[in-house]
Structure formats: C-alpha cells, structure tokens
Design goal:
The strands form 2 sheets. Strands 3, 4, 5, 6, 7, 8, 9 and 10 form an 8-stranded antiparallel β-sheet that branches. A hairpin with a 6-residue loop joins strand 3 (about 85) and strand 4. The chain has 5 helices and 11 strands, in the order H-H-E-E-E-E-E-H-E-H-E-E-E-E-H-E. The longest helix is centred in the first third of the chain and has 29 residues, at about 20-50. The protein is globular and about 45 Å long. The protein is an alpha+beta fold. The model is unreliable at about 1-20 and about 20-65 (pLDDT under 50). The protein has helices spanning about 20-50, 65, 125-130, 140-145, 205-220; strands at about 70, 75, 85, 90-100, 110-115, 135, 145-155, 155-165, 180-195, 195-205, 225.
Length: about 230
C-alpha cells in the first residue's frame, strides 16, 4: 500500500487545511482589499479640502454683532469710534470713552447706571441732579438754559437733557476728586425700561461732546427690547 496516497480519517471538529493555491488566492484578496481601502481614504481626504465650510455656530463673532451692547432688557448699537472700558465702579453697568476733538484736553465719558426696580430715584429727580452739576459763569440758572425733551424708544418713555457750562467740582465719595471745569457739556438720558429706569450720562469738553452728540442720541434711539 502506498503511504503517500493514504488518507487519514477525518477528525470531528477539525477543518481540512487549504491547498497551497487557496492560500495564495486569500493573500491576493487581502492585498486587493487594502488597496481599495487606501484609495477610499485618499479620496476622502482630498474631498475634505473642497467640502463646504460648516455654518457658523450661534454666538460666533460677526462684524455686525461686534458693535452691539446688551444692557439688561435692551440691545443697543454702539457707534463707530466709541471705546468701551471696564467700569470704574460697581454702580456702573457700562462705560465708554468718546475720543476728544482737536484742541480738547479730555475725552468724553459715557457712563450707564441701573439700580433696580424702584431704585435710583425718579426721572425728574435725576434730570434735576444732572442739571445741578453744571453751573453758569454768569451765575444764572442752568435749569433755564437746559434743553429737556421726551420721546418714545421701543415703546418706553425716554427723557433727554442737554446743558452746557462749568462742570462743578466732584467730591463724590469713592470717586476721583476733580476741580471745576469750564466749557463742558452734559448730555443725559433716562430710558424707563420694563424693570426700572436706565441712566445714560455723557460728559466732556463742549467741542468733543458736540462731535459725538448725534451718535449719543442714535445710541439711545437704537435700544431694542429683547
């Protein structure tokens, strides 16, 4: 009996080994699969550079929103050229420097205050207080020279005051002590919001404030209730 042609009996649970040509076919199939996957990966990377950009996420910076300021229930448009600063006191909700006009020694300063519902005094009391901070060189009444105007902004009452003269010395506790300054102008606005009044006060040399007076009014008029 030829041993080379003899067959061993099959053992249960065991698989017959593949012949040599079967192993070769499996190897070539594996190589082909690798080439196919590498080709797809390369195409995917290539197309990624041409894929459309993802839409911006909510809250991402945009030129229009860069000039908006949210103050309580209002969103306002900040005029070009204004410089927002860190408020110098906790009472201030916002503070801006308005660059000085040629020949003036100081920038204009806009401060924004909010004290809460029923706090901070009435509109008339604050308008009177602001007028009282400005004196007249001839000793006449600043109240008689002040211009007061009322209007509506986003359905809310707004009162403005415009008065020029000598800004009286500042001696408010906790604030820098300042001497009296002649040739100054004060623009103020009280916007009576749904949760109490917001106070906007702009002070500076007359020429500087005249330069920014229109933009100050546009800033207040741009207030939109959220």
């Amino acid at each position: 009996m030829n041993k080379s042609n003899s067959r061993r009996p099959a053992v249960p649970g065991m698989t017959r080994p593949e012949p040599a040509n079967g192993i070769a076919r499996a190897c070539w199939a594996g190589i082909g699969l690798c080439l196919l996957l590498s080709g797809c990966a390369g195409e995917s990377v290539s197309n990624a550079g041409n894929a459309p950009a993802s839409p911006p996420t909510v809250g991402s910076a945009a030129p229009a929103s860069d000039r908006q300021k949210v103050l309580g229930p209002f969103t306002l448009e900040v005029p070009s050229g204004w410089v927002e600063q860190t408020p110098r006191s906790r009472m201030r909700r916002a503070q801006f420097a308005l660059p000085r006009a040629g020949g003036d020694s100081e920038d204009g300063e806009l401060t924004v205050f909010y004290f809460g519902m029923g706090q901070g005094g009435s509109t008339d009391a604050n308008i009177s207080r602001w007028i009282g901070q400005v004196g007249q060189p001839d000793g006449s009444s600043s109240r008689d020279k002040a211009k007061i105007r009322q209007s509506q902004v986003s359905g809310f009452r707004m009162t403005e005051v415009d008065v020029s003269g000598t800004l009286k010395a500042s001696n408010m506790p906790g604030a820098p002590q300042r001497p009296a300054r002649a040739g100054y102008r004060l623009l103020g606005a009280v916007l009576e919001g749904p949760q109490g009044p917001w106070f906007f006060k702009l002070v500076g040399p007359e020429k500087t404030i005249s330069r920014w007076a229109d933009s100050f009014r546009q800033f207040i008029a741009s207030a939109r209730s959220q």
